[in-house]
Amino acid sequence: MSSLTILNQAPHRSAALLVHLARHMRVRSEAAVAPLGLKARHLIALTVLRDQRGSTQAALATTLGVDRTNLVGLLNELECQKLIERRRSSEDRRRHTVELTDTGAELLAKAEFALAAAEDEVLAALDREQREALYGLLQLATAETPASCVAAEASPA
Amino acid sequence: MSSLTILNQAPHRSAALLVHLARHMRVRSEAAVAPLGLKARHLIALTVLRDQRGSTQAALATTLGVDRTNLVGLLNELECQKLIERRRSSEDRRRHTVELTDTGAELLAKAEFALAAAEDEVLAALDREQREALYGLLQLATAETPASCVAAEASPA
DNA sequence: TAAATCGTTTGTAGTTAGCAAACGATTACT
DNA sequence: AGTAATCGTTTGCTAACTACAAACGATTTA
């Protein structure tokens, strides 16, 4: 255990690289999906909703990391385009359950096809295998809070 | 080759996940490095500069994806803290060559240690190997434009 | 009945970033 | 030589995003 010398070596930290790369990706992505009437946050919300169907708005807010008051507007925009549906929860009628509609799923698929150019540009240095590996890691990392956990958080025993 | 059916399957697109994860990372990171007087953009700039020593400001601007007029203020803030140095290029005295100072390198190292908590939180679902793999992929992807290329872009033959 | 929760509305404030125009210094073109 | 272009810089404007707080009706819980 080199308890002292290890302090002189900088660890491998992904934070800056991740944010840096994501910035480029966000710019390119927004240009790619703009014709579909979507911005990055819509894309993220739809993507999260595809994995976490039936989340409550409070749960969605914590997952997305946005204020619940700001989430309202975001969901309104998506609901106007029939991409999502709000239903009252049968268990607790105060809550809204958010569901991805078929149109929403279709548009999300379209959007993902449209992202090809953006990803080719930003991930140019990665080959197909590496991109798949990156996708897997991202999928894993972002799935750290599955729907059940978030729902459990929102409604603690 | 299922040329038709493939159109019905959404490809694996990392864009949304990447931006989503980076959003969380940015929030946690800023909280972590705030005591050092740094924000995410400073962190990114310093990180890029560590790899691309001696870039001109124009090259840095394109690498960072920010306007050159806005880069001036960012570099001013870093220079005030003696983290970087601007020198006139000997080849073209219009240009400023940006260098990471020793203090800058030290502070960057400190900052990266401070990011431990942030990464532990955001990348909780990844083990050590996976985090290292992610770091490698990010390093590879962000290095798509090495200093020479950027410099070449800035001063085409 | 009283208190707490969920989604919602409204308003405020701060940060961020892009963009355009102009300038001095310097270099490149012809 | 003279003209045009480039680099960094300053200034000012603008739009977008987000956090945050306060309050409300509907509903659930104590």
Question: What are its keywords?
Answer:
homodimer, 157 residues, mainly alpha, Arc Repressor Mutant, subunit A, 3-stranded antiparallel beta sheet, 3 strands, 61% helix, disordered C terminus, DNA-binding
Could you explain the architecture of this structure?
- 2 copies of one chain form a homodimer.
- By secondary structure, chain A is mainly α.
- Chain A has one domain (23-154): Arc Repressor Mutant, subunit A, CATH 1.10.10.
- Helix content of chain A is 61%, strand content 8%.
- Chain A contains 8 helices and 3 strands.
- In chain A, strands 1-3-2 form a 3-stranded antiparallel sheet.
- In chain A, strand 2 and strand 3 (96-100) form a beta hairpin.
- In chain A, helix 1 (15-33) runs antiparallel to helix 6 (116-122) and helix 2 crosses helix 5.
- The longest helix of chain A has 19 residues, at 15-33.
- Chain A starts with 14 loop residues before the first helix and ends with a helix.
- At the A-B interface, helix 1, helix 2, helix 5, helix 6 and helix 7 of A face helix 1, helix 2, helix 5, helix 6 and helix 7 of B.
- Chain B binds a DNA duplex (30 and 30 nucleotides) through helix 4.
Quick structural gist:
The structure is a homodimer of 157-residue chains. By secondary structure, chain A is mostly helical. Helix content of chain A is 61%, strand content 8%.
